[in-house]
Amino acid sequence: MSGGPEPISAEGLRAVREELAQLRVERGEVAATLRGVDPVGDRADAADELQRASEVARLDRRIVELEARLREAEVAGEPSARVVGVGSTVNVRFDDGTEETVEISEIAEERDLTLVTFDSPLGKALLGRHAGETVNYDTPAGAASAVVLSVGADAGPQTG
């Protein structure tokens, strides 16, 4: 990403909030199993306690990451209507002439084939581009290119 505050798509925002809620529940459940200052039994008990404490720490780190991402998205506001960034809707024409409207996202959702992650080959090629520019990227089948037809509110199926 750009290193500055990045906007986030509505779908990405929903996914981050959902993951954050799930992690908070999971953290509460794992933390409730920690014994605290009570003496630990045998070595297996100590190892289990250490593993749960490590899991709580991992969950805490991810929660902090997601909370920071939500704050960053709020500061960044809406994606640009001129330059492709995370959260942008982009209409592209591929080498074979097909046109597709995609959304640049932080997350991959199996159910939504129009999401392109910012770190995918196409996503990386599109970031920072404007309408009219041609991008080149690699696919499993080899090199490919696409033309950015429109960005933002103007993106959508093109007629004509």
From TrEMBL:
SUPFAM superfamilies: FKBP-like, GreA transcript cleavage protein, N-terminal domain. Residues 82-151 form the Transcription elongation factor GreA/GreB C-terminal domain. It holds the Pfam family GreA_GreB_N. It comes from the Bacteria. The keyword Oxidoreductase does not apply. GO terms for molecular function: DNA binding; kinase activity; RNA polymerase binding. Residues 7-75 form the Transcription elongation factor GreA/GreB N-terminal domain. One of its GO terms (biological process) is regulation of DNA-templated transcription elongation. Keywords: Kinase, Transcription, Transcription regulation, Transferase. The keyword Membrane does not apply. InterPro entries: GreA/GreB_C_sf, Tscrpt_elong_fac_GreA/B_C, Tscrpt_elong_fac_GreA/B_fam, Tscrpt_elong_fac_GreA/B_N, Tscrpt_elong_fac_GreA/B_N_sf. This is Nucleoside diphosphate kinase regulator. It comes from Kitasatospora xanthocidica.
